[in-house]
Amino acid sequence: MKLSLRDAPGNLVAALSPISATGGNIKAVIHEHVPDAQGNVVVNVVVEIPPHQIQALKDAFAENGITIMLLGEERLVCQETVILIGHLIHNDLGDTIDRVDKTGFAEITHMTIAMPRIEISSSAQLVVQATGEAELAQAINILREVAQTKGFLMITPLEGAT
Fold it and tell me: More exposed terminus of the chain, fewer Cβ within 10 Å: N or C?
């Protein structure tokens, strides 16, 4: 869910407290401290909550002056991390990402890139998320084909590794 709350001491705790009070389990919180013109900040929260408690959670947020900007089930449920090595920027990394994102069933949801020097290969860690296992495999295959075409080395996790 995506929440908007006033940028003031204690408001993040006030936003998170109703989640556990209504039986929810907080899995992740992303809080970027960049207030908008009205002095509000956006907080993304990944939460597991019994469906019958969602209305109680909405009511608790309303009582605390917290605006729900987005609430819904997680669409992208499978994830794999890959590493690409090569002249990524010079070979349009944006295009590489777009090829996965435009499928509608998978997205590159996080990327970390290292660029030591212009003449040395870059490396990028990409988190690929998809709507299911088959779709994730298809997205990884798309990346594999693009990597081969653009001359990137692609490193994927070992099958069955723990």
Answer: C
Residue spans of the domains in the chain: they are 2-70, 78-155
- 40-48 β-sheet, strand order: 25-31, 40-48, 2-6, 67-70
| Cα gap 100→95, rounded to integer Å | 9
- Domain at 78-155, CATH from 3.40.190.10, 3.30.479.30, 3.60.21.10, 3.30.70.260: 3.30.70.260
Sign of the torsion formed by the C-alpha atoms of 146, 149, 152 and 155: positive
Summarize pLDDT for 70-103 with one digit per residue, the tens: 787 666 778 899 999 999 988 998 999 999 999 8
In order along the chain (162 residues), what is the average pLDDT of each group of 10 residues?
A: 87 90 87 81 85 89 85 77 93 92 90 90 93 91 96 85 50
Q: What is the pTM of this model?
A: 0.56
